[in-house]
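Page 37, top half.
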Amino acid sequence: MKFEGSYQFPKSSSEVYSYISDLRRVSECIPDLKSLEIKSEDEALATVRAGIGFIRGDFNLRFNVTQRSPHTNLGYAVHGSGLGSGVDISITVQLEDLSTGGSTLSWVADTKVVGRVASMAQGMISSQAEKIIKQFFECLSQRLR
């Protein structure tokens, strides 16, 4: 599955980059985050409460920053397991300053889901993913005012 979008922020691309490239800070916006362990500047382990339909429980995630081009690009790889399922997500982020002030963040996430959760209808998975994405960016918008 592929998800993508763009958001505008009143902050410059360098300010947005500074926030989203810091795993501790950006994790503040992960919905239902139960725990976080920062391993290095480019790696974090997290546990989130997740659920789709009647399947609910904890998901263990490993976040890795895979690409850094200060103030313009970031890449993340996320690997997770739990609920008899697995997920791999590759995220690319592009930042661009606007001539009117502020910046635009454009992102693409390629997602692979296997196991019990994958057996759910794609519509249910997409709907839940879109809900989580919306919550994440609403939080990010609040933090970057």
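Page 37, bottom half:
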Amino acid sequence: MAPAPTPPAGPADQCFSRIQSWWEDRGTERSVAVSGAIGSGKTEVLLRLRDALPNPVYVDATGLTAEELLGKILDAFGVPDLWPRRVDWLWQLERAGVSGRPLLVANSHRAGRTRRSMQPSRVLKRVLDPLVRHAGARVIVESGPEADHAPRNWLSLQLQASASVPPGVDAVSRQPALRALAFAELRSTPLPVWAALVQAVTGELVDEDALATLAQDLPDLVETIEDQVRFVDERIVDAMRAETTASDRRRINARLMTRLLAFAEQLTSPEGWSATGPAGHYLAHALPAHALQAERFDDVSGDGRLVAHIAPTALLDAANQRAAAIPSETLVGDAAALWVAGVGSVSQPEWAAWLHLMATVRGDSQAAQALEHSGIALPWRTRWAHWRPPYGWRARYLRGGSVTEISEVEAGGRVAVAAKGRWDQRVRLWDADSGDLIAGPWSDGIPEPGQSEPLWPRGQDNDLAQGWTELNAFGSSLAGPQFTEVLRVGDGVVLAGIGGVVMVAPGEPDAFKQPEPTHGSALLGHFGLVDNNAQDFWDEPDRTVLEELFEPQAVQRLEATGLPPGLRNEDARHVLREVGLPAFTGAEMSLVAVAEEGLTELTAEEVWGEDDGSGTYYLLGTWLDGRIVVHGDSGTVHRLPAEGEEDDSDPEAAASVGQFVTMLQNYVLGRCLLPMASSRTEREDVRDEVEDSLTAIDEDGDASRAWTYALYDND
């Protein structure tokens, strides 16, 4: 009898063979993305590849954050679990030979605590794509039904679903209680939450014991572990959700939110909801996702009593699904900023204390009070602060500055906190009780009350605007924590570091030593971009702004009689007469004290080396050792090349004096904030913000190399 013919290879077999050939032939595609609908067999393809490929690394992404998945990859390649090693994870994995072993990532579309999550996108964009592009990794990743999310130069293979639906879908469809379970956001659902889901879907009350019995009777569909229920096959959840309209999902989540918020009122623990048990854990990790689908995210994210209990990843995950950029100076904006600063891995009470600090510093007393009354026992509470929060973009943050060498001193009969500026090396004193500035900045030891020097000493660079090269030389590529010094003063504790100085009241004075350690930088950078549009940005010259940035005595104006007749441009005359020009030295420039020195007239030959007939110019100062001049007729501001410097192809620094002063306002603020950023990620964002602001003011003027010279490495 002849042997039966070999059946033709199905789509999954073809996919398996195609990937094997890709690995063996080292094709031009750098990695492989396998996508497909429910029941297409893509997970089975990866399991077969795990057994067939040489020495593979296999990670199932289900339920993992991008950071946790990266941690598993680092473990697999033997990278020690030490922060200095892991913060430089791309280099470490390249060194560990990530390019020589196949890296298989199953269920990347199921990454994240919640079923609706940004983590699948973060896994691909923040972990796998950089690994491929920068470390030469050869990745095979299973993704969801869509085939268009793989990066360029990846081989995309899409499997079609089989004709049959996953086992159990029909049975679940006939059971309203099981169908309701599919709308849970966490994959393991406590019985009280399941009961609330049933009521939200059917409108009927159901006994938790009855649900527990139902789960026990259907072990092929659901499993029960420690009073929590989960589907055996997540494809059932996908099917149930896919057949539910958007309006029905919104209605279900709106009803559920009422029950969940009622649960929250009943949960009390000084350590947060998660410490109360499974239902509290569910709320802490799933409430934002349900609120988002119920169109109530603003209600939740704006209430400090709730936000104090919500896990940072859950809050930011939902916020990122809602908008491309997170509004600054909100609780969610604070959370996104703290995440970049490496604060996201602390305990829930510690997280609430950091949020309280952020709200206090930006003057949001309502949010601060809500956090205080959240029921969480804050391990420390902010009394006063002269501190620039991560991603803070306000002129007032320049006053405290980065500090070091804090100490307790006596000043005029008052207990004071003394600190030396990290960059200008000058001492400032603050009242220990009120936080009021008593004295400083002062360059000659401890000042007496009332003694101070100008923030920008005349003719002397205070070093507050450190350039990119200097910051890198200082070791900025490996970020440091926000607070590097701790000092007990009376019944309070002073914290000081790169952002400034903070006085806190410990929750347990006898036991408190310092805040929980943080790394100063997130492993994967952003978890949502912070929109700084609400913060300080100026689109016109403003005397009030100049006085805030440079102090009133530094901003000088010319009397009408002091304006030279050759300065005919009306904008230039108006700005110099009504707004003023700061007489300061810093950020590689030094501007003329116009009221004291007047404007020095220059001929075209003195400016350009030849008389081109363009008329007269006036000296405004120097910048990178090159002169800054304004053309008397057009008002255009030029920065001339310094001696020995190659001619700048575009010496125009601004189209007018008004635009130059406006650009100066934004530039100096950004340059002073740059050294106060704790991580390289934030410093790059500050740099981008500075460049964007300059372009928005004068697209042609910002092309001058002087504006961006100090924002990049120039070794």
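Margin note: The two ends are 81 Å apart (CA to CA).
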